[in-house]
Amino acid sequence: MRIEHDMLGEMPLQDDAYYGIHTARAMQNFAITGKPVHKELIDALATVKKAAAVTNRSIGALDGRVADAIVKACDEILSGALYDQFVVDCMQGGAGTSSNMNANEVIANRAIELLGGNKGDYALVHPLDHVNLHQSTNDVFPTAVRIAAIRLLRPVTEQFAALQSALQEKEAEFSRILKVGRTELQDAVPVTLGQEFGAWAQAVSRDRWRLYKAEERLRQVGIGGTAVGTGMNAPRAYVFTVIERLRELTGIGLSRAEYMMDPTQNCDVFVEVSGLLKAAAVTLTKLANDLRLLSSGPRGGIGELILPAVQAGSSIMPGKINPVICEAVNQAAFQIMADDLAVTLASQAGQLELNAFLPLIAKNLFEMLDLLGSVLPLFIDRCIRGIRADASSCLQKLDAGYTLVSALTGYIGYDKASEVALKCRETGKPVREIVLKQNLLDEQTMGEILRPERLTSPGSANEKRNDHKTWKT
């Protein structure tokens, strides 16, 4: 055991613990979720500490041997070591101070070892005087959250691009399959199955683009602003150099915020990103719900789509297959929507020069990104790519209903078309049969009117009647 001291007194710590007294107190104070901060945030904190050490060495503010030991300790963390020493709960008071101190102490104690000393010998490397030199939690933690968010956001954006591509492939595959379009869950006008997939792809493409552009706001960081963004106790050489080192180390086009107090106190950028993730979750929910609806049955429901069978659906009903991947997507989306509310509430609760609730913002934002990063590949690979169309079911429902009558109104008039629709409902006979039997149109004209490309493309009856090229194609 070793004994460490702070302004509140002293505490014993295990000899093998790289964290110190500040972290130990936080462990007692914040036993809330049982979950540590996100690994991407740990890496981001280590990167910020490394950039600070390199900068402080370059301006002569930090002894070279100490700086080198800090850098090596940070590199070990970035290689995946010492994660188990980051033990502070992800939900913590203090605007991230406990996580910043956790990083300072772990890095300091590992640097001490690298210099040949024993953990806790802070005369060699001090968590605050050396590791945290020219920094504050209030510029370190928000900067680290932004870096971690960008790193998690990029693969999510790529997955949305992959989802868009998968939907567009189905759009092309199903482009010739006519079916009943539905509005308010009632039969409407004909569409192609491909057009439905194309509309879904368009919505996903907007989500992809919005998330891609959101990174621009995350790139503006407040490192060098110290406690409230004024840069107090930080040399000008440090303030203007540390951002360059951080840009080099992350490979991200980070920039120093134009007004350094802004990213310290305002969290609207996180609300923006969270809101865009919620919007993407809404798109995914709509898509998953539509797929569940169109694949329902298969005999007692719509049954126009056949989703991949990935597991047995029931312990009591043999042969039952459920749309479990779509349901998993729904659940992830619901959680994302809930997380967005937490981000919103935490962001608006900031006061004056600081938002004390940034740990909660980070926790929920990272959960949203993790959920999307996990569920999107499943959705693409285990559902979308394997979807098949039941073309016969699509055609049967189209012929059995009276939706085709809408295509005839420009040729036989609304009143006659209404009579045909009523007759279809009364007799159950298809539109084509009733129209031909009543000599409202001849068979050749009916055939031209009811061609897929004519039923599902713009143009009035007069335009299509006079479009001789189309009629002859």
Quaternary state of this entry equals single chain
Proportion of residues in extended strands: 5-15%
Q: How are the strands of the largest sheet arranged?
A: 1-2
Which class do the helix and strand fractions yield? Answer: mainly alpha
Q: Provide the gyration radius in Å.
A: 31 Å
The mean pLDDT is: 92
Ranges where pLDDT stays below 50 over 5 or more residues in a row are: 468-473
Number of DSSP strands?
8
Helix content: 55-70%
Shape field: elongated
In DSSP terms (H or I, runs of 4 or more residues), the helix count works out at 20
Instruction: Give the N-terminus to C-terminus distance in angstroms.
Output: 88 Å
Can you summarize this structure?
With 473 residues, this protein is mainly α. Helices cover 60% and strands 7% of the residues.
Write the layout of secondary structure elements.
Layout (H helix, E strand, L loop, with lengths): L1 E5 L2 E5 L7 H9 L9 H20 L5 H15 L18 H18 L12 H5 L5 H37 L4 E6 L2 E7 H26 L1 E2 L14 H15 L4 E2 L4 H5 L2 H27 L10 E2 L17 H25 L9 H25 L5 E2 L1 H10 L8 H4 L1 H14 L3 H7 L5 H7 L2 H4 L5 H6 L1 H5 L1
Parallel strand pairs: 5-6
Antiparallel strand pairs: 1-2, 3-4, 7-8
